[in-house]
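Give me the fold.
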Amino acid sequence: FKANVDEKVRGPESVGMDVRFAGAEEVFGLPERTTPLSLPRTRAGNGTTGFGDVLEEPMRLYNLDVFEFELEKNFGLYGAVPFMMAKHKDGAAFSGVLWLNAAETYVDIADSTSVKGEPEVLTQWFSESGTIDMFLFSGSKPKDILGGLFAVTGTPAMPQKFALGYHQCRWNYRDAEDTLYVDGQLDERDIPYDVIWLDIEHTVGKRYFTWDEHKFENPTAMQNEIASRGRKMVTIIDPHIKKDDNYPIYKSGKEAGLFVKNKDGVSDYDGWCWPGSSCYFDFTRPEARAHWAALFNDKDYPHFTDNLYTWVDMNEPSVFNGPEGTMAKDLKHGEGWEHRDIHNIYGLHVQQATFEGLLQARGGKDRPFVLSRSFFPGSQRFGAIWTGDNTASWGHLRSSVPMLLSLQISGQVFSGADVGGFFGDPSAELLIRWYQAGAFQPFYRAHAHLDTKRREPWLFEEAETDMMASAVRVRYQYLPLWYTLFAAVALGGKLPFKERGMSPPMRPIWWEFPEEAESWDDLNRWMVGDSLLVHPIMEEGTSKVTIPLPVGGAKKEVWFDLFGDVGLAKSKKAVISSVGLDRMLVFQRGGSIIAKQERRRRSTAMMQEDPYSLVVALADDRVAEGELYIDDGHSFEFEEGMFSLRKFAFSGLSKIDFELSAETMAGGTFDFEGSSSLIEKVTVMGLNIKPYAVKSETGEALDFTYTQNILMIKKPGVRAAIGNWKIIISA
């Protein structure tokens, strides 16, 4: 590649296999790339005999630092998950394949026909080196396939609650004064946030684990000031280490022989990245990961406080002067492995070592938060990922949805796209729409390039700032739902959650409605859990939209427009709505109960003891159910039983009498931070019969109002986390 010569001393060693998905119509997965969610065909079919002509390049899985990536391309980006899910028989069955190989991999896809004349999808998997290590999954629902994937690669880590809040980031906040100014301005505008981030310019010459004390005179005091409002800080630490014998991190790695080696297997590899000439820890070696993990202390990392967490970037790995901007394939790792053998898993090991460092530094009591740009199957065990260096354009906003859905169904559930786009300057309209969309995606961070105009929410017209702030506040109201969904996927194998099986927090419409043909064409909408349908506005100048709503089969589906006429149940196949710039289109599914926290606070830490509200959306038969998971939001004490998993149910006692009940499904036997929180309000939507009385199960009359099919019960005096209770509604 250009000046680099790959000698391939072991000669050709490619491995491959064809996989036919019998009776399949569509296939999904293989992130990360910018294709539609339903993967396009790269080869023409050839009847029953196999592949025909080449249509386009195969799907490539090779982690690279891709500058200003293009849309609708098969080219692989920052991470690689060689996993594919197939839909069979109009959604009546699903299957999956995991090709567990970390070398450069390609996948061809073609439509084919079986000898019986039935449709099928033919795929060909081939990797440059390694062994064939393939896992096959089958089931009647997509969650069966994802559950199988997690059984092989591990379940996602349970995040701290703050990690699900809003993150404010830029390359770079200039100094401590700028950082604290941003913190203060968000407070002044009543915009909640949980984490402020510092990029590479906070260091001394891109020497990670350091602070430029000309810009950040007292980093500990700065962190403590931010933490006084329940917030955290994240700093960037990349895997390339500046070659400087006066730099302790480089010196210790060199003396211990822990860097990636040249092809001779002896001398340290020297690549070029942000600091200039750099060496790279060999994270495939356990001793290198242990060495890295041990650096997370206030001696090796001055000003490392209890409120500091980590972002690992450039871990594909990125090498500015390397072939395709990464390491040469004949470099040596560990006991003689060539880089070609381990390339796609390198980034996972960087995240793993960092996760282990944060875990050890806090005595195993604090859940680590680590964001990584590169990933591989199993990365979900160590934290969050994001879609990389996107652009401030409507096309990138639209593309973020299939990119994230592909990651979600492939196991990378804690994922997001940078709000506003990393490159370029978004219009106020685009930025508002992105804040609204991101509020209903798992990882919610605003980020921007060094050369872009400052775009923090308060820098716009007052009305525009209010719309961005409103979207962020909505995110915080729904944090109990997000936290419960993450608990279900992280702990669902151990606790009796409502969804028996593994489902991602953000999921395609077809995940819930596979029988509806229209759901398979939904490219820019998604479900949050099984209860919310999100229809973001992703076209410039939109004033009116047609919103398709799943109608259901034998069970007629109804939907409630949460930011419109909330009391009117909608069961049409399509709803037409006018949309101002402040309008968000989110629908709650009839038959669901969602817990919210609606008091305005500065951060998630300030919400921990806050009361909850229940939003009951009645199905056509006037029933609903939901669940809520609560723990202290930050520690591992849930493993010792310090949590509560609650089930809420609304049902009819007769044609005119109804019951709302709460039951503890697991935990709930110990008090913990947040266990004393009350239910302060219950809203029942779709109750088309006016009640005359609402009482506790002891007969105490409760305050309520009823208007336009909405029943609101105020201060029912029951606890959210502990104690079984009932509320009786008589009409």
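The two ends are 77 Å apart (CA to CA).
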